[in-house]
């Protein structure tokens, strides 16, 4: 609560002093713009389905503003790091749990693809790869297809594996996004999701505080309510991606599920 008051005082100082955002140091500029989009006149609410969310909901216009003013300028093109450690860890986990995906070429989708990451591995193995990200990045080096919005993808073509890492908590409607992911998955296909654990005090939603750019804070109980999915793995993991049973030690939630035929 104390930290929240400090943030509000800093924002009010910047607003009252009428300093144009373009003249602020970069960190203060990001702070002010983030506050306007994600915190001003907003509060944390809890859904009985098992997640916290910002109310009123962040609109598409507000989110587009965030990507335009803050996220896009920060993201370099093409990305400097085509793979990070987490991408490889996720790939190996999928290979261990879903070996049937690796005996033939598959349709693979990465929702919130960012730097490309795991998509590069699947593309190198000659699978069809579709990336979904609001930031347009040149993936032509690996013959990958990109969409800005998952709603623009034709439902007629379904996917063997849909993967999303640290993205579903940053949209305008988490439930709608996950339902769209399920709809685009082939019957018998697989879904891999990793996101923040909203039940952990680290993310402050429990105490009513908002993290900039986080619009939803799912708990592990939310993923137990999803229909049309057979859960294979549903774990709380720490920063080192080690499974933990304690909610306050689980920084992230990792789900691997199969769509029921």
CATH superfamily of the largest domain: Vaccinia Virus protein VP39
How much of the polypeptide forms β-strand, as a percent range?
A: 15-25%
Task: Quote the average pLDDT.
Answer: 86
Instruction: Name the CATH class of the largest domain.
Output: Alpha Beta
Supply the CATH architecture of the largest domain. 3-Layer(aba) Sandwich
Number of domains: 2
CATH topology of the largest domain: Rossmann fold
Low-confidence stretches: none
Let me know the largest β-sheet: 8 strands, mixed
Overall description:
The protein has two domains: 1-36; 85-259, Rossmann fold (3-Layer(aba) Sandwich). 30% of the residues lie in helices and 25% in strands. It has helices at 2-16, 26-39, 60-74, 85-97, 118-124, 174-183, 220-223, and strands at residues 43-47, 51-55, 107-111, 128-132, 145-147, 159-165, 185-196, 216-218, 229-237, 243-244, 252-259. The strands form two sheets. It has an eight-stranded mixed β-sheet. Strands 1-2-8 form a three-stranded antiparallel β-sheet. Strand 9 and strand 10 form a beta hairpin. Helix 2 (26-39) runs antiparallel to helix 3. The longest helix is centred in the first third of the chain and has 15 residues, at 2-16. The mean pLDDT is 86.
């Amino acid at each position: 609560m104390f930290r929240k008051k400090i943030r509000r005082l800093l924002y009010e100082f910047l607003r009252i002093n009428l300093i144009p955002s373009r003249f602020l140091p970069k960190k203060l500029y990001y702070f002010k713009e983030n506050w306007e989009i994600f915190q001003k006149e907003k509060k944390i609410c809890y859904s009985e389905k098992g997640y916290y969310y910002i109310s009123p909901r962040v609109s598409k216009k507000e989110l587009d503003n965030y990507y335009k003013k803050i996220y896009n300028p920060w993201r370099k093109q093409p990305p400097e790091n085509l793979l990070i450690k987490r991408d490889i860890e996720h790939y190996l986990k999928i290979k261990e749990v879903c070996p049937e995906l690796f005996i033939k070429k598959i349709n693979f989708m990465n929702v919130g693809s960012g730097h490309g990451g795991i998509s590069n591995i699947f593309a190198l193995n000659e699978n069809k790869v579709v990336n979904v990200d609001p930031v347009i990045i040149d993936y032509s080096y690996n013959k990958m297809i990109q969409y800005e919005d998952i709603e623009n993808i034709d439902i007629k073509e379904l996917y063997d594996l849909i993967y999303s890492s640290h993205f579903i908590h940053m949209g305008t409607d988490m439930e709608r996004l996950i339902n769209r992911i399920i709809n685009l998955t082939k019957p018998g296909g697989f879904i891999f999701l990793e996101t923040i654990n909203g039940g952990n005090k680290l993310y402050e939603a429990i105490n009513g505080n908002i993290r900039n750019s986080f619009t939803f804070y799912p708990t592990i109980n939310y993923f137990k309510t999803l229909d049309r999915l057979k859960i294979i793995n549903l774990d709380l993991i720490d920063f080192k991606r080690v499974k933990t049973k304690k909610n306050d030690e689980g920084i992230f939630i990792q789900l691997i599920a199969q769509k029921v035929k």
